Amino acid sequence: MTTQVQFSTFNFHNFPVRTITDPKGEIWFCGTDVCNILGYQNSRKALQDHCKEAGVTKRYTPTTSGNQEITFINEPNLYRLIIKSRKPEAERFEAWVFEEVLPQIRKTGSYSQNVEEIRPLEITLKVQMLDNLYYMAKNASELCHQYRKMMNDIINALNIEYFRPSKPDYKYQLVSDMQFALDDVEVILKTHTREQTVKNIELAKLRRSF
C-alpha cells in the first residue's frame, strides 16, 4: 500500500476530471470538475445539497497556478451527484467512470485512455449486439417456421406430392446456421474469458428470445 496521495486526470468529452487515490486506496474526484460535467451551475451549493460531509475532503493539488486547495468527493457522493443531475450525459458519465475509469485506476494506480485490453464497457456493447442478433434470428426463425407450415398445409390439403420440397429451403437453413453460430459465441464467452467483469455479465439474457 502506498503512503502517498496519487494524482490522476482523465477527460470525459473534453471535460477534465481530476482524481486522487489516498494511502488507503480510496479514490476521490474533484467536486468542481464533476459538477461541470453534470450541469451544476453552483458547484459549492451542489456539494452542500447532495453530498454527505464525511465523503468530502480538501487537498492541496498541483495546478497551473501552483498548489491550490481543492475539494474532492468520494465514490458514494459522486453517485449522489449523478443521480440528482438532469443532464442526459449523466448516465453516460456514470458508465464511463464506474465501468472503465475506476477499474483501471484500481488496477494500475492511474487512468490511461490508450488501454489496449478490451474494456468492460466495450464488452457490454458487444453483448448487446449479440442480444440484438438473437432477437433478429428468433424473428427470422419464427417466420421460416410459419412459412414452411403454411406450405405444408397447402400441399397436404391439395394432395400435391410433387410440390413437396426435397430438402430444406436455403433461407431456412441459413437461419438455422446463424443460430448455431450464435450458440458457439455464447459458449466461447462462458468458457474462455477470465475477466471477472465479463463473467458477471448476465449472458443468460442473450437466450431469453428462445
TrEMBL record:
Annotated ranges, domain Bro-N: 4-109
PROSITE patterns: BRO_N (PS51750)
Protein name: Bro-N domain-containing protein
Record organism: Haemophilus parahaemolyticus
Lineage: Bacteria, Pseudomonadati, Pseudomonadota, Gammaproteobacteria, Pasteurellales
